[in-house]
Amino acid sequence: MTVTLPTAAQRPQKPDRAGPLQTLRLRLHPPVSITEPPAGVVVERDIAVPMRDGVRLRVNVFRPAQDGRFPVLVCAHPYGKDRLPQRTRSGRYRKSFQYHAMLQTTPFEHSAWTSWEAPDPAYWASRGYVVVNADLRGWGTSEGTAQVLSAQEGLDGHDLIEWAAAQPWSTGRVGMIGVSYLAMCQWAVASAAPPHLAAICPWEGLDDAYRDFGRPGGLRNDGFFRVWAFGLKAQRRMTTNLRKEQLHRPLRDDWWDERDRDLESITAPALVCASFSDHDLHSRGTFNGFRRINSEHKWLYTHRGPKWATFYSPQGHAVQAQFFDHFLRNEDTGILGRKSSEIV
Length: 344
Hints:
Elements: H1 20-28, E1 32-35, E2 41-50, E3 56-64, E4 70-77, H2 97-101, E5 108-111, H3 121-126, E6 130-135, H4 152-165, E7 170-179, H5 181-191, E8 197-203, H6 209-214, H7 224-234, H8 242-248, H9 254-257, E9 270-275, H10 283-292, E10 298-303, H11 307-311, H12 314-329
């Protein structure tokens, strides 16, 4: 599709800038509200899903309580599908430490069923969708050996999509959605071309592990990459030492290439979110990913705001719903008549 530049009225506004005192307040009290899970949703936890080699991934399923078949949204990640907000002694929900570490200047909310960077099952089930939240191979309660950014993730995602399409509560139309790593996982799955994958919504991912993450501009990333690699290593489920590989591979080689995806093979309809506020990690790779995929129907949603606040915002949910309601529910939402510049 043709992408045109937005008009002045359509351009995203500059994000709020926090002063020192406001920054301290935001770190101590992130502006995120964790809401109670709603009634009227059936929750099934730790369902075993067999992969082609016999390894079983485990998923949590959230579906509307009424009888019928529903479109399905899938996400898969290494962060733990069961690592959910927990109640404190005061009765409130404890917020993820990432919200304290990485500032969100705009208030937002999601339910206590929402795992890290995953879609909120409360929102999507209320709209008549099933949400399947999966632990990737070797993570959480899934079996197997953990390998981040591996080609195996695409094969496992293929099998997971086909499993979801065949369930009695499914219409057979399956989409994927999620932020950051959950976006990169979508590239892997879509490049494996599962027949029942009807649409993807990769929200701020990247397309090149070397240039976007490990060594942007050829310079070793000693900030977020080191913290992220340490966090995964601490879970003691992964055999690869990511930080060691990064330190000993200053030039692009086969190891880095194996962690990239064949984006040119992707043809699934795509709503891609790229921000102007995450340059050190997501901006370049997401814009480039949008450019590289060969989907006939693709839209680029951009913003300058906080990553998670935008993903869970009413505006973010509205454009996601417009996209999925068309491609998963066959509804005429008007999205086919919109250019990327019109949904910025």
